[in-house]
């Protein structure tokens, strides 16, 4: 069952703000408000679906296409040592927002990850990080 008032649905409708880095007809990507590392981005589908299994094949294709595109820009903007890409289905798997999304989490060899959804980032820093990714997407 899909809850149309989940946080990401409200962001997609423009009812809540976000640091958007990318949008097309099927997807939107924005900064995670509690990033596990610098440059942590979320890719959400516009199709209303709680889990990957509820998403159409076309929606899944669009989500992974955007994830790849934005992850490439994150890599160009932050030069991390690696990038983890994750997607959780169900509370038992760690999903806290019931709208399908992919995490793009840059990994830095000398830094441990911050907790999942634990520390709010300074809005100014989040905005600067978003600008770096937007600039990298522009150059791609
Ligand atoms: P999940 O736990 O469902 O895989 O991931 C949800 C993610 O959304 C978490 O990493 C959390 O930090 C992030 N998040 C929660 N609320 C908000 C919000 O209002 N705005 C943004 N941009 N991210 C959020």
TrEMBL record:
All copies of domain HIT, residue ranges: 7-114
Stretches that traverse the bilayer: none
Record key words, sorted: Hydrolase
Endpoints of the signal sequence: none
CDD domains (UniProt xref): HINT_subgroup
Gene3D superfamilies: HIT-like
Recorded GO MF terms: bis(5'-nucleosyl)-tetraphosphatase (asymmetrical) activity
EC number: 3.6.1.17
Domain of life according to the entry: Bacteria
InterPro entries for this protein: HINT, Histidine_triad_HIT, HIT-like, HIT-like_sf
Root EC class: hydrolase
One of the Pfam families matching this protein, by short name: HIT
Residue ranges of coiled coil: none
Biological process according to GO: nucleotide metabolic process
Motif (Histidine triad motif): 99-103
Catalytic residues in the record: 101 (tele-amp-histidine intermediate)
Protein's UniProt name: Bis(5'-nucleosyl)-tetraphosphatase (Asymmetrical)
